[in-house]
Design a protein that fits this description.
By secondary structure, the protein is an alpha+beta fold. 60% of the residues lie in helices and 7% in strands. It has a five-stranded antiparallel sheet with strand order 2-1-5-4-3, with helices on both faces. A hairpin with a 2-residue loop joins strand 4 and strand 5. Helix 5 runs parallel beside helix 7 and helix 5 packs across helix 16. It is elongated and about 85 Å long. It starts with a helix and ends with a helix.
Length: 456
Amino acid sequence: MAQSTDVRSLDVLEATSTMAVDRSVSKEQKVLEECFKLIGNLEYDAAKAVCEKEKDGVRYSGPTWLKFLGEIVRLCATEKQYHSLEFLEEQRWYTRREGLKDIYALALTELGRIGDVYGAQRGGTAPGWERKMATLCSAVAVFIKARRELLDIYTQLAAVQAAMDLTTAEALVVQVLSRFNAHYAGGLLDPLKELLSREVHLLQLLLQCQLQISNWQFLPSLFSLRTCQQKLKEWHGLQFEDKRFTKRSVRSSFSLSKTQQWPLLYQWLCKFNATLVSKFSFYFQQTLSDQCSAPEMKTLLGKTDFDIISRLAAVKRRSDLLVFALVFDSRNAVPPFPGQGYRLPECVPEPPVGLASYPALLAFPAEYPRQLWPDVVSLIQEHSSRLSVPSTPSIKFFDPTQSGKFFFLGKADPRMYLVAVFAGRKVEKESSVIGALSEVLGYLRLTELFASLRAG
């Protein structure tokens, strides 16, 4: 009888112990869910506070759990640095601050050790939880590796002096998301997966849109812009009211609350989108003008981040500008140059030849002077390779063809050229005119955009 009582007592004690472990595991899981949700919403300080409170309030979970919480606190700090673009700030020789890349390397090492400890404990009191924690350590490591790859991409973009070719950058961004999805096992880290996926998709779309605009692909770039706009509105699930998503709000930071602002990375992505909208409006100005009246078009262009047409009008008022032309090099273009307007997909146009292979997509203030076009094309062909060098964005000529005209030639994209023709040489002394043209060229080359990454 006594033996039976002892057995029942042992069963009760074991059940009680198991319930205590289950309650502990349940609490730990809730803590992690809350932390990752806060980090996914960019509330780093709140997530850190949750972890610190848990570290101070528990003693039964063991040192491994406390070490893992310490790594989550480190993750909060690195995410804050990442989204504030601190890793792009110029390092001085007298600063000894540890770089974000070094912090990532240390975090990966520590997570590997913690994961190994949990993996070795699979025969303990809560084997299911220990397996989950080992898997979670691996998932956090996968997220950090993706962050480290994106850090390298942003560093490369910050060093770009002109958007001559961003194909490689776009391919690298696609690879980051592909590798992350291939190794991510899912689970508690879903808020961080959503955060990373949204950022990478948006960056890839922006780079893709730049390539489409530079190759003068109207519909693909229009669809990309609309998708970018939608993803910006959906950032972290926040739906902006249309009246708030204006020129002012795009160029400044959105307020999350009275004390919290959108991080610099998000502001830069908004700026990238606004720049592409302005560039799209300029490159396809003739096509867009056919869809509305001249006053409506002027109003719409005035709402863009950088109204290039207005700046050219100011140049015209201050100088003897004859024409400003946007010239496209259509030779060997893929897909073939379709010409102005819409075409059905099955209607493949014949590629233009001769002078026609350098069409003027836009002429301001009037149609381009056809009698000067052989000279313009000759200048482009002669100096194309030289203009591809970032340090030589533009070349200014005086009467290179004995025509008595002053030419300004610049390369905005691999196939896109800006040509300004003036009636005489006096414009050479007008620094404000040349400065305005250089400003337009720099904006289209995305020089200021990429430089702003490093400037913050």
